[in-house]
């Protein structure tokens, strides 16, 4: 078993450790896989061009049956299902690339396909027995059967462990009877199979309930409410689900009884990466639209593209998209290399993906200006479709808390062990030595990135500096606040934003290094410039975050919000 900190690149950063062997060289698909993925992409593009009218899907709140059937015949419902079960058996990177393409063409379709395979049947791929796979995967691969992921409940959104749906063991454990309801379930209106989570222990004060994952067939008695009316992704189906005495056989438990929370989290780790790849695709579509608009629109006797403020937007959009694409495919490569823990990397990709897309769609709409606001053009629909990404598969707020707290868990444990070791020096010596070694390494000078191309030396030095800052800041807050850090969301936000920027910069550095090695300085000019610009933007944020640890107005903000809750509204009027 490798040491804990080496199991995740981003978690290691919290110790000031740059595990560069994990991210160099930048992962790439094999040429065989690139070729087969290109063939899929070609047929997907042709199919969408001939058959998909996204404006109509948005207007009708429905994906036509003929389109769904076409997607089925292209094999798009079974992209990652192994070929032995009738799927295409794509790697994570190739799957991400296909979802990127689909996301860039139609968000409702991407969400429908994503809910089916990124999360709907993912539990089977990750935890299913051979028998479960044999029974369900072939129909799921062809799309004859559609899957959904049912976790969220009225009183359990971000706090996923608080679900109330109850599963009672009956017939001496041969089956379970499920009662409860789920909300906002994508594909809820027509899915045939649900990965559904229910409590298999009573709710007890102070202890977390045991949750179990079940594969529930609609025919077992699941019913649904009407489709919700949504801001965007209107062609996708989102409904409530109801379970009234739904009997599920024991063999439909996925993973172990009582270990369903872990199943849900692992599925979401994979789903969040799929979402990020969809965001890459939409950003690329928006860049095409924005650049086309810039070239055609004239003002004050010139193309608007000549103006500095337009160039500023286009440059930022490109740099942010480059960073997002780099980290998404770096993470996909890590998953394909069978890394044990990519929970933080995928959460970062989800947060950065949805926020990059939100900023890119906002900038594109601004460039398009008047027509950007009109329903006859695609901009406003893409804006509406994009908003949900900041919310579903874990709100960006809860994911920031997750990123910060799970990053600080190991340093926090190490610190606690040091304190204990100081009290019991002989017994604690073994513990201390590991931590002391790391500290000694840090004291000798900060960790270096040795595999970055020398042309990116400036960027690498700034990266190293802020890795060391992250470790210092994390240790400072842990020393100062101990377990109370769990309640300090302002501080968690700073920590999360730092590690997200660092991961993005690391991804740009390894990808750009590979580009320079392959094509030389001139050949990789665009990548070098985008890496440089992204680093500059990230550097400003990192500097600001570090300074905010020492001086901030957190307490002022809390006081203002606290009074607003009492007032119930904005308290002033000029009258
Ligand atoms: S589906 C609904 C999405 N819902 C969520 O994402 C829920 C968010 N909440 C959470 O993730 C958890 O409740 C949090 C933990 C993180 C808040 N990997 O004590 P704990 C372990 C592995 O911290 P809590 C939807 O929206 C942890 O280490 N393990 O738990 C789809 C610990 O283990 P141990 C993890 O305080 C819509 C244990 O769990 C992870 O209760 C359709 C307990 O941890 C993890 N990540 O809360 C989308 N997290 O006990 C379709 C925790 O061993 C999209 N743990 O120490 C398709 C997109 C297509 C593209 C679109 C393009 C436009």
UniProtKB/TrEMBL annotation:
Gene Ontology process terms (BP): fatty acid metabolic process
Signal peptide residue numbers: none
Sorted UniProt keywords: Acetylation, FAD, Flavoprotein, Membrane, Oxidoreductase, Phosphoprotein, Transit peptide
Domain Acyl-CoA oxidase/dehydrogenase middle: 148-246
GO cellular component, one term: membrane
PANTHER family noted in UniProt: ACYL-COA DEHYDROGENASE, COMPLEX I ASSEMBLY FACTOR ACAD9, MITOCHONDRIAL
The protein's name in its UniProt record: Acyl-CoA dehydrogenase
């Amino acid at each position: 078993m490798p040491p804990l900190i080496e199991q995740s690149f981003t978690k290691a950063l919290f110790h000031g450790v740059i595990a560069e062997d994990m991210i160099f060289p930048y992962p790439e698909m094999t040429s065989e896989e690139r070729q087969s993925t290109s063939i899929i992409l070609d047929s997907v593009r042709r199919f969408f061009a001939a058959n998909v009218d996204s404006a109509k899907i948005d207007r009708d709140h429905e994906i036509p049956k003929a389109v769904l059937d076409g997607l089925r015949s292209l094999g798009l419902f079974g992209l990652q299902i192994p070929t032995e079960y009738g799927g295409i058996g794509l790697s994570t990177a190739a799957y991400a690339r296909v979802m990127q393409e689909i996301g860039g063409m139609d968000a409702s379709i991407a969400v429908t396909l994503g809910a089916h395979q990124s999360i709907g049947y993912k539990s089977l791929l990750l935890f299913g027995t051979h028998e479960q796979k044999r029974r369900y995967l072939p129909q799921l691969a062809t799309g004859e059967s559609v899957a959904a992921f049912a976790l969220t409940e009225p009183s359990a959104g971000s706090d996923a462990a608080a679900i109330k749906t109850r599963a009672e063991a009956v017939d001496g454990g041969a089956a379970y009877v499920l009662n409860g309801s789920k909300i906002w379930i994508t594909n809820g209106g027509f899915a045939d199979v649900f990965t559904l989570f229910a409590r298999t222990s009573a709710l007890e004060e102070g202890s977390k309930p045991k949750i179990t994952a079940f594969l529930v067939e609609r025919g077992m008695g699941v019913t649904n409410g009407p489709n919700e009316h949504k801001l965007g992704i209107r062609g996708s189906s989102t409904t409530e689900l109801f379970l009234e005495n739904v009997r599920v056989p024991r063999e439909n438990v996925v993973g172990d009884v009582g270990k369903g929370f872990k199943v849900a989290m692992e599925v979401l780790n994979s789903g969040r990466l799929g979402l990020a790849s969809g965001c890459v695709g939409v950003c690329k579509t928006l860049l095409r639209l924005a650049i086309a608009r810039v070239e055609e629109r004239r003002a004050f006797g010139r193309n608007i593209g000549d103006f500095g403020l337009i160039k500023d937007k286009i440059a930022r959009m490109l740099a942010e998209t480059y960073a997002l694409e780099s980290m998404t495919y770096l993470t996909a490569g890590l998953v394909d290399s069978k890394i044990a823990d990519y929970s933080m990397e995928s959460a970062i990709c989800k947060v950065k993906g949805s926020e990059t897309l939100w900023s890119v769609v906002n900038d594109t709409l601004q460039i398009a200006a008047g027509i950007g606001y009109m329903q006859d053009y695609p901009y406003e629909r893409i804006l509406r479709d994009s908003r949900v990404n900041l919310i579903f598969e874990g709100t960006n707020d809860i994911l920031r808390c997750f990123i910060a707290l799970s990053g600080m868990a190991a340093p926090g444990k190490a610190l606690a062990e040091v304190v204990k070791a100081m009290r019991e020096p002989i017994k604690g010596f073994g513990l201390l030595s590991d931590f002391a070694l790391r500290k000694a390494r840090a004291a000798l000078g900060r960790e270096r990135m040795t595999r970055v191309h020398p042309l990116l030396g400036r960027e690498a030095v700034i990266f190293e500096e802020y890795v060391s800052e992250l470790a210092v800041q994390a240790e400072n807050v842990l020393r100062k606040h101990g377990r109370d850090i769990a309640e300090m969301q302002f501080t968690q936000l700073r920590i999360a934003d730092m590690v997200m920027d660092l991961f993005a910069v690391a991804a740009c550095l390894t990808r750009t290094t590979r580009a320079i090695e392959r094509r030389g300085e001139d050949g990789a000019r665009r990548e070098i410039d985008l890496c440089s610009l992204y680093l500059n933007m990230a550097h400003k944020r990192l500097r600001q975050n570090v300074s905010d640890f020492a001086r901030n107005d957190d307490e002022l903000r809390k006081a203002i919000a606290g009074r607003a809750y009492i007032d119930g509204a904005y308290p002033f009027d000029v009258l």
